Amino acid sequence: MITYKDAGVNIEEGYRAVDLIKGYAKSTMNPLVLNHIGSFGAMMELPEGYKKPVLISGTDGVGTKLEIAFKMNKYDTVGIDCVAMCVNDILCHGAQPLFFLDYIACGKLEANVASDIVKGVADGCLQSGSALVGGETAEMPGFYPEGEYDIAGFSVGIVDKDKIIDGHEVEEGDVIIGLPSSGVHSNGYSLVRKIVTDLDEKLGDKTLGEILLTPTRIYVKPIQKLMEKFKIKAMCHITGGGFIENVPRMLPKNKTAVILKDSYEIPEIFKYMMNLGVEKDHMYNTFNMGIGFMVCIDKSIKDEVLAELQAMGEKAYEIGYITCGEEGVCLK
């Protein structure tokens, strides 16, 4: 008799993975979730207080940063990256994340590894105020190499229609405030893996492997607090394409963001990569260069916004301003 296990799929290991994962998912639940892990679909009612609620969604993965996790045999942070890449994006439109779903694919399921990944997902959900309402773990022998995983996620958030942030009110003279990244985050790792060959090499008091696995920052809670007190005209999550591709996404036509490169200290990991031969201009078109999130505000409230962020324990920098023009972004 031929079984599913003979084909490379271990059902018992899948059951064990689910048992390990359930506790992490349960820790993210809130009263809006109407059912539990194991149903065919997740149910969540909308919170009260919204006059014209709009749902905003986003999906993303972790990309080739996962190869660093494979080599380091460390899987409990990449789930945070997956959540961060989704919730930071929908945050740019003023959305409060509601729930999250994940998808993990592998060649051979190892319950402990899957559990570590979902632990990171749950950590990211708690950091963003999301409920981890479901997901899928797919074991596909012969399709993925054994020992390798892929992970993707999907986030849904909510915002009142009249509070959607889309950049249409951005004006000449507005100020751009930058919040620091935690490092490389989750973009540009195909280039990172090409130039960084020794993950055990020290840079400061950490190895390059440890630095490169630092999870992506989740900006939801400080930005939500900021939105409660101040009018934010536009926001930008610096992901793939760096400053060059992402900053123009928050602007209306005929407006240019002037970014002052010397307005903050570039983290050592980016200086290290430039020393390996990556041109500075290319760095700004690939990486976040130390700024993971930007907000655009009226210059009249600049000092108050910076003071509020500082009171939250956030480092923040005035990194640029808005002018009229067609360039989208200008680095000075």
Automatic annotation (TrEMBL):
Residues 171-327 form the PurM-like C-terminal domain. GO terms for biological process: 'de novo' IMP biosynthetic process; adenine biosynthetic process. Its main location: cytoplasm. Gene3D superfamilies: PurM-like C-terminal domain (3.90.650.10), PurM-like, N-terminal domain (3.30.1330.10). One of its GO terms (cellular component) is cytosol. InterPro entries: PurM-like_C_dom (IPR010918), PurM-like_C_sf (IPR036676), PurM-like_N (IPR016188), PurM-like_N_sf (IPR036921), PurM_cligase (IPR004733). Keywords: ATP-binding, Cytoplasm, Ligase, Nucleotide-binding, Purine biosynthesis. Pathway: Purine metabolism; IMP biosynthesis via de novo pathway; 5-amino-1-(5-phospho-D-ribosyl)imidazole from N(2)-formyl-N(1)-(5-phospho-D-ribosyl)glycinamide: step 2/2. Pfam families: AIRS, AIRS_C. It catalyses: 2-formamido-N(1)-(5-O-phospho-beta-D-ribosyl)acetamidine + ATP = 5-amino-1-(5-phospho-beta-D-ribosyl)imidazole + ADP + phosphate + H(+). It comes from the Bacteria. It is found in: Cytoplasm. Transmembrane segments: none annotated. Its EC number is 6.3.3.1. Belongs to the AIR synthase family. This is Phosphoribosylformylglycinamidine cyclo-ligase. It comes from Clostridium cadaveris.
